[in-house]
Amino acid sequence: MKEQPAKINSLKHVLFGSLIGTTIEFFDFYIYANAAVLVFPQLFFPGASSTNSTLESLATFSIAFLARPLGSAVFGHYGDKIGRKVTLVVALLTMGISTVSIGFLPSYASIGILAPILLMLCRFGQGVGLGGEWGGAVLLAIENAPPHKRAWYGMFPQLGAPIGLILSGGTFLLLTDSMSAEDFMDYGWRIPFIASSLLVIVGFYIRLKITETPAFENSKEEQKEVKVPFVTVFKLYKNQLIFGTLAAVTTFLVFYLMTVFILNWNTKSLGFTNKEALLIQLFSVLFFAVFIPISALAADKIGRRKMLIYTTIAIAVFGFFFSFFLTTHNIVLVTFFVCLGMSLMGFIYGPLGTFLSELFPTTVRYTGASLTFNLAGILGAAFAPMAAIKLSDSFGIASVGIYLTIAACISLISLLVISKQEHKF
Predict the structure, then answer these.
(1) Where would I find the Major facilitator superfamily (MFS) profile domain in this sequence (predicted)?
(2) Angle at which helices 274-302 and 304-318 pack, to 10 degrees?
C-alpha cells in the first residue's frame, strides 16, 4: 500500500490523467466555438441579417457557460463525496456524447425550429460536462503534487486548453482548405464533431486507470466528509467564492475576445478570409501554450496570487491598444496584437487552477474550485463575444478594449482583497 503514493505522484500519471482529459474536453468545446462563427449562423439561424444570425448563434454558445455551474454543483458534489476518479469519467462521457450528437443534427432547412432547439440541448450537455471536468482534472494534478511544485503540476490540465484549441482550429482549417465551401457547409463541418468520439474513447480508457488522489483518501480516512459540499461552500467559504470568481473573470474575457470575437472581427470587419483568420488564431495559440508552463514556474517561486496580480495589471494596460491594432488591415500588426493577448492569457491561465483550488479545503475543493471557475466563465465569457460585437458596432473597437480594462481592474481589486490563506492538501 505504501508504494501507491509514489505511483500517484509521478509526473507521467498526472500528465496522462489530467492533460489528455482536458485536451479532449476543450477540443470538443472549441470546435463548437469555431462552428458558431463560421457555420451555425447559416445552417441553424437563417433568415436574419448576417450580424443577427451570428449573435443568435453566439447566444447558443453562451448556453454552455450557464450550464457549467450546474455541472460544477452536480459533479463537484460526487467528486467531494465519492472521489475524483468516477466523477471525471462521467464528466468526460457527458461532454463527449453531447459533442458527437451535434455532428448528426439536421439543419433548420430540414426540420425548422427544432434544429436550433436540439443544438441548444447539446450545447447545454457540453456545458454540464465541462463544468465537472475542469475541477476534477486540476485536483488530480495538484493533489498529487509536492507543495513546492503545485503550480507546475496544476498547469498540466491548463495546457489542455491551447492543445484543444490547436487541434480544433487546425481541423477546421484543414477542412476549409481542402473542401469546397459548398461541401464544407453541407457535411464537412460535421466531421470534427463526429471524429471527437475517437478522442473520447481514448480519454475514457485513460480515466479508468486513474488512481484516487492522496488528499481525498486522507480526508476520507479522517472522516472529514461534509453532507452537501455545495451548501458548505456558500455557507462557510462565501468570500473565497465571490472574490475568487471576480479574480478569474478577466481570464475568461481576454481569452474569448482573442478567439471568438477576433475570429468574427477579422472575417467580418477587416475582411480577412476564414483561412487567414484561423491561421492567425492557431499561430497565437502557440504563445498561449508556451507561456502556461513559464507562468507556472514563476508562480511556484513568487506565489500564485502575485503572478495573477502582475498579469492582470498588464492586461488592463493591454486593453488600451485595441483601437491602434484592430483598425488596421495589416495582417502582421493584427497577428502581433492577438499573439500578445494570448501570451498574457498564458501568463494568467497557468497558475489559475492552482490558485482557485488553494482557496478551499479538500472536503469541498472539487465543488468550490469548479463553481468559482465556472461562475467566472458566466461573467467573463458567456456573453463576452456578443457584448463585444455590440460594443464595436455601436461605439467602435476602442470600447471593446475599455471593456477588458474595466474587467481587469475588478479582478485586480479582488486579488488584492482575497484571503491569502492556503488550505491543507
Answers:
(1) 14-423
(2) 140
C-alpha torsion 342→348→350→355, nearest 10: -160
Domain assignments of the chain as residue spans, ordered by start: 4-417
Radius of gyration, CA atoms only, the chain: 21
Q: The dihedral of CA 44, 121, 265, 169: what is its sign?
A: negative
d(CA 150, CA 301): 11
CB 132 within 8 Å of CB 79: yes
Q: Give CA–CA dist 246/248, Å, rounded.
A: 5
Alpha-carbon span 245 to 352, nearest angstrom: 11
Give the span between the Cα atoms of 335 and 287, in whole angstroms.
11
Q: Which triple of cell numbers denotes residue 72?
A: 460544477
CA distance 380 to 315: 14
Distance in angstroms (rounded) separating the CA atoms of residues 379 and 411: 12
Nearest Cα to Cα of residue 389 among 256, 246, 255:
256
Q: Tell me the C-alpha distance between 26 and 413, whole Å.
A: 29
* CATH classification code of 4-417: 1.20.1250.20
User: Are the beta carbons of 32 and 169 closer than 8 angstroms?
Assistant: no
Q: Using CA atoms, how far apart are residues 31 and 146, in angstroms rounded to an integer?
A: 35
Distance of CA 203 to the CA centre of its chain: 18
Residue 147's identity, in one-letter code, is P
SS3 category, 164:
helix
Per-residue tens of pLDDT for the chain, all 425 residues: 344 444 444 567 666 777 877 787 778 778 887 888 888 888 998 876 777 888 888 888 788 888 888 888 888 877 777 777 778 788 888 888 998 999 999 999 899 999 999 999 999 998 888 888 888 888 888 887 888 889 998 998 899 889 988 888 888 888 888 888 889 888 899 998 898 888 788 877 777 777 766 666 776 666 566 778 888 898 999 999 999 999 999 999 999 899 889 988 998 889 898 889 889 999 999 999 999 999 999 999 999 999 999 999 999 999 999 999 999 889 999 999 999 999 999 999 999 999 999 999 888 898 899 899 989 988 998 788 889 999 999 999 999 999 999 999 999 999 999 876 666 66
**Model's pTM, two decimal places?**
0.83
Residue 151 identity (one-letter amino acid)? A
Task: Assess contact for 160 and 111: CB atoms under 8 A.
Answer: no
Residue 330's CB: how many other CB atoms inside 10 A?
11
